[in-house]
Design goal:
single chain, 286 residues, Nucleotide-diphossugar_trans, Glycosyl transferase
Amino acid sequence: MVNIIYTHCNSGAGDILIHHWLKSIKLHIDLTNIEIVVIDFGLTPDQRDTLRDEGVELWPAQADGRTPNIQYREIARYLATRDDVGQVVYSDCGDLIFQADIAPILKDDTAMMKAVVEPEFNVALHGITLGFGDVRPEYLDEIRKTIGDRSTANCGFVVGPAAKIAAIWDTYQKLCHGVDLHGTDQLIINYILRRDGFVELDRIWNYVTFINGQRFYYDRDGFLCNHQGRIPVVHNAGRYNSVRTIKGFGYRCGRIRPRLYTESIRLFYRGLNWLHGIFHNRATTT
């Protein structure tokens, strides 16, 4: 059996994929038993040639919806052509890089989904900032109850056995009537994680910089570190570049925005969550 690390990409992020995401994988991850797959949502011919030269398998796909959502349709189709895949690692590519091998998280609990919980985010904030417009109304209460008030996992980096990753799309189709909104994939995967159970990975395996209250910094060699040292998987998340914590982010490059700027965004989200709690409590007591 082989393992797969995969992502999805179009021409706009293709150069970042090649020069930062793929470069960091090749430098830090032991690929002895791992294949790299990219779902091709419109890469340029030159980008495709470069990726193939680097040993990357491309899976051509039509971008007929928001690609972070429909990529689960495509990975299901791809995995249907393979019966030799053990674990699958999904990773964002435009804002995520590797600084260490991921072998430690592939060794154990191979039958379980694995993800990193983002302490500062939850389903209430998802509704306020991203919305539930893709979800079928009759399933919204079930999703909310299943996830509850617990923090949600950031699904820019998810590990699971091939069968469970392939089944995400079936659940998505059942619960959703659309594929247009940013973040719907994360909502559905969090529903699956809480419904079925999952292994909660240490935060360093998907270290989301957005609204992160921890302190982190670049060392003299250009690697991002926290109090534990060099961070294995760094995710400079954010729907818009203007709110991403690190400007010019990439492999061994970037500049952390001033603390006051990032703290103001974090406090804004905390305020939204606080206000939601007040109005929710009033609604349930009247």
